[in-house]
């Protein structure tokens, strides 16, 4: 530390690769001279992936020299470890952490805040009509349609939208259409947008009527007034002295809407509620035997424990109370040995929540010692249980994620499909992880990627189920950290889109964040 003054602090950010323990330097802030309360200006721009545990390390140093080698020439003031998801999942995406690492010394705190780069998320909806277009068809009028082109850096044009064809008219009115601003002008409001007018022909040899050029900025003025463009045909213009135009196109309306992202909802206070359901059917094998899928080895986690930890450790960053309801199904439970399909792992019927993922694992291990594995494999009761909670919270403040870990063939397929169809209208997603060597064909049917789940003629409103077999993600060298990272990456990748599809279909907008 400086003897006669305050510190000259700098923060160095290190990132850790997914599934690896190695830290590499990502960047540094500027040095702020002579202060103990620096407010750094330089931002770190990181790619954010909800489905990955993105570990960050912030090291704070007092700079003594201009050397690039931080550790040799600088005083170490402390460090903080944090996952990017923790920062984003915190209230208003602001997180305060104590600095540690200097024995016997209070090192102060570091305040981290995250914001999403907007990257032009606006969507434009516009409507156009035309007047007195050139007649191109011998026996009738024209069948006009418009083609929009975005100009590229090198002066070429890329097609970005085609309107529908309006048959047999020289004064068409096209339907309103929506297009991302990104697609129209790549976020550059002054870039040329070229629009060609064609007469449709059945054989594909459409006749060129004319063209006009504009820009996003010019189009956006139509929010307050109609804009009329002359449609010009360069060949006709050269040939005919009296040529005026080939008609006009009028922009009737132009409206801009922002497309909300997953981060907008999390910043606005939406919490993810995580519930766990574990398969305790007899097909898993006797837990005390090494061949059992539930076997508690002193040396490594079982596939069940790995699936719980992999998914839970990421989701818990977005749940402020870190209380997770955890259930088992398919076992005979004490005291009377009755079969249950939704018994609380912590044995507390009134409050089945466990504290953190470690609490879930602890209750899971405890249950293995007290219940008798039995059957059948019924999913519907626990899906309906979570759906009842979700049905009470449909305002966008909560989104429920149910993780089911199972070893096999489902016994109540009809009831489960019905439960999924009902749940698809609620703020809820279901992740199913299959462990062990069984065939999981039936599970694929529940994952509505190709064919939407249906029951008795009713189809699911949204695709809310993601199924994966754990064996596809196991690292052959036995690296459990890598196996868990791979599993989490795949099963959680669809959650942000599923949350957005619920919010959009129910017209729920993110709550505005307080000014910081």
Concise account of the structure shown:
With 516 residues, this protein is an alpha+beta fold.
Q: What would you note in describing this structure?
A:
This protein has 516 residues and is α+β, with helices and mostly antiparallel strands. The chain is 22% helix and 30% strand. It is built from 13 helices and 26 strands. The strands form seven sheets. Strands 15, 16, 19, 20, 22, 23 and 26 form a seven-stranded mixed sheet that branches. A four-stranded antiparallel sheet has the order 2-1-3-4. The model has no long low-confidence stretch (mean pLDDT 90).
Keywords:
alpha+beta, 516 residues, seven-stranded mixed sheet, four-stranded antiparallel sheet
Mean pLDDT, nearest integer? 90
**What is the radius of gyration computed over CA atoms, rounded to a whole number of angstroms?**
30 Å
> In total, how many beta strands?
26
- Unreliable spans are none
Helix content: 10-25%
Shape: globular
Strand content: 25-35%
Structural class: alpha+beta
Number of helices: 13
The first-to-last residue Cα distance is 32 Å
Sketch the major β-sheet. Answer: 7 strands, mixed
Family: Belongs to the copine family.
Organism: Chrysemys picta bellii (Western painted turtle)
Pfam family, one: C2
Protein name: Copine family member 9
Write the layout of secondary structure elements.
Elements (H helix, E strand, L loop, with lengths): L8 E8 L6 E6 L26 E8 L7 H4 L1 E9 H6 L4 E5 L10 E5 L8 E10 L12 E8 L5 E6 L14 E4 H5 L6 E8 L7 E9 H5 L6 E4 L3 H6 L8 E11 L3 H6 L3 E9 L23 H13 L7 E7 L1 E3 L4 E3 L2 E2 L8 E3 H15 L1 E2 L6 H12 L6 E9 L6 H11 L4 E7 L6 H6 L7 E2 L2 E2 L5 E5 L10 H13 L2 H11 L11
Parallel strand pairs: 15-16, 15-22, 22-23, 23-26
Antiparallel strand pairs: 1-2, 1-3, 3-4, 5-6, 7-10, 7-14, 8-9, 8-11, 11-12, 13-14, 16-19, 16-20, 17-18, 17-21, 24-25
Helix pairs in contact: 7-8, 7-12, 9-10
